[in-house]
Structures are given as C-alpha cells and as structure tokens.
Amino acid sequence: MIFYKKLVLICLIFFVSCRELRYDKGIDDSSIYLITKIKSKNDWHIIYAVKRDSVYKIISHKEKLITDRCVKIAVGNYYNLKLDSKRENTVLSTGERITPVNFTGCFEYDGETIICLEPERKIYDLHNIKKLKGLYLCE
Fold it and tell me: Global pTM?
C-alpha cells in the first residue's frame, strides 16, 4: 500500500512539473500561433497559422537555409511569432501609408506568383515574418 502511495505521489509531481515546463511564463501568449497547414506555390511557402479564432496566412520565400540557430517549423506546433502585415506596410518613401486603388485581393510576389486573400476563410491580409527564412525560424 505504501508503494502505491509513493507511486501516485511521484506521478503527481511528474505531471505538475511537466505542466510548468510547457507554459513558460516569460512568453506573451498574444504572439503564440499554431501552424495548421503549409503548402507551396512556385518559389514561395504559404503557411497557415491560428491564434485564438483567427487564421493568418504567412508568406515566406523558399530557401535552403539550415543553421544551428534556426528551427524548422512544422504543422501542429506552436511558435512565438511576430507577424508583419503586407497591407499595413504599404508605405511611400516619405513614410506615408497608401491605400491601394482597384485592389483585387491578390498580391504579386514575383513575375509568376500571385497569392490572394481568402475572405471566405476570414483571411483579409497576408503576413511575413522577418526571422522566417523558408520554413526555418531563425534567431
């Protein structure tokens, strides 16, 4: 009987300690995203990430960069990301923001790649991440 009590106590301590490791109190959860899907179009990765009830579409140029300071992102994992808006970053050299005229909902990324918003999925903006090189999140 004492053996079982000790076993239960050890298991309880183990589960509590694992839970504490999983939730790092130093990370702001407003920047935590779940990667739900990764697909490709020409030389670009299209990454879908979810935060709370919102879906974000992240665009990253394909690169074959692998270094010790980079971590490959994967579907089903959570990451601390800083997204930059494609639409909000349309700025003139004078610093003024401009609003596109006759905007079709699509952006051209190179001469042959057009990536569109998806209003039916409530995706009204495209994003990039400065620290994302291909599918690798670098420091």
Answer: 0.71
